[in-house]
Amino acid sequence: MDDDIRVIPANEVGWEQLQTVLGKRGEAARCQCQWFHVSDRDFGVMPHEERASRFRAQTACGDPGARTTSGVVAFLGDEPVGWCAVEPRADYVRLARLRVPWAGRDEDPADEHVWAVVCFVVRAGFRRQGVGTALAAGAVEHARARGARAVEGYPRQLAPGKQEMWGELYVGTPGMFEAAGMRVVSRPTPRRLVMRRDFS
Predict the structure, then answer these.
(1) Which residues of 155-184 are buried (b: 16+ CB within 10 A; e: fewer)?
(2) How many distinct structural domains can be found in the chain?
(3) φ/ψ (deg, to 5) at 3
(4) How far apart are CA 179 and CA 171, in angstroms?
(5) What would the pLDDT profile of 141-178 be if each residue is shown by its tens digit?
(6) pTM of the model
(7) Which CATH number belongs to the domain containing residue 42 in this structure?
(8) Which domain holds residue 116?
(9) ∠ at Cα 55 (100, 171), nearest 5°?
(10) The pairing of beta strand 192-198 with beta strand 150-153
(11) Which distant-in-sequence residues (6+ apart) come within 8 Å of 96 by Cβ?
(12) Helix-, strand-, coil-residue percentages of the chain, each rounded to 5
C-alpha cells in the first residue's frame, strides 16, 4: 500500500471531490452508489438527479460532525482518487435479496452490528497503485471505529488465466480484503467469496 494514500470518512470530504472520483461518465457516475440501496425495479426508474441527491444525503459530504456517512474516500496527496461504500449490512436493501451473502450461513440480514463493504471506485489514471487495498483497510477501520461487531466483503475471484472484464471487480478482490485482515467464511459460488473480520 502506498504510504501517500490516506483514507477518510466521506462526510469529511467535499461533494465535488467525491464526484471527481465517480466521474462524469460510466457506471459509477450513473449509479451514484445506489444499486445496493434499492430494489431492481426502483433503481431502473430512478432519475439520475434523485440518485445523486440520495447519495449526497447518505454521505453527508462536507459535514464533519455528521453522525453517519456511507463510505470512505481515498486521497493521493491532495487528489481524491477512490471511493468505497461501507455501512451497516442492514442498510443495503439489495443484499437481503441476494443469494451470495447468505448461502450456507446462519446470519440475520437485519443485524445492524455487522457492516458490509459493497463497492469500490478508483479513478482512471490511479489504478494499480494500491488505492483499492488502502480503501479496503480504511473501510474496515471505519466500521470498527463506529462500533461494528464485524465487517464483511463479497469479492469476486477471477477465473484462472482470465483477465478482468470491465467493471467486474467493483466489489473488490480477495487480496484487497485479505490485506485488510478479512478471511474467507464461505464460497457461495465458484468465483464469489464472503470474507469477514470480527472485532473482539
Answers:
(1) bbbeeeeeeeeeeebbbbbbebbbbbbbee
(2) 1
(3) -65, -15
(4) 15
(5) 999 999 999 999 999 887 666 655 545 679 999 999 99
(6) 0.92
(7) 3.40.630.30
(8) 5-198
(9) 30
(10) antiparallel
(11) 90, 109, 110
(12) 30, 25, 45
